[in-house]
Amino acid sequence: MFKKNRHGIQIKTSEQLGKMRAAGLVVGRTLEMLRDSARPGMTPLDLDALAEKAIRDEGAVPSFKGYQGFPATICASVNDEVVHGIPTDQRPLRDGDIISIDCGAILDGWHGDSAITIAIGEADPRLTELMRVTEEAMWRGIAALTVGAHLSDVGAEVERYVRSQGRYGIPPEYGGHGIGTEMHMDPWVANHGKPGRGPRLEAGMCFAIEPMVNLGTERTRVLADDWTVVTVDGKPSAHFEHSVAVTEDGPWVLTALDGGESRLGRRPDGQITSEGTAGH
Question: Any idea what the CATH number is for the domain that residue 165 is in?
Answer without folding.
Answer: 3.90.230.10
